[in-house]
Amino acid sequence: MNGDASDGFAHRAHYTVTAISDKTDSDGIAYNDGAYGDVGLERPESLVPFDNLPQEDVVAAIKATLGADKVAEIHAALDARIAEKITPTQFTGLPSSWS
User: What is the pTM of this model?
Assistant: First the structure.
């Protein structure tokens, strides 16, 4: 988070969203992917001291700032990227006969 040192107001929150599949790769590691970003936060009428900010309140403020559609879009994109890892539809490489 970023904030004003003078009064402790956290005006910017950085977030990370991690999606983890129940399917695992050949090494037994769950397929996963993540997204990150940041949002500006509105100054509330009364400030909670920075060190006392409840995490769930900050997460709720981030989601509210992003909006339900954007939150759903982030989750859908992560699900799609994990699905691509599990069952690739694209590849990168050179033919083995080119070595």
Answer: 0.84
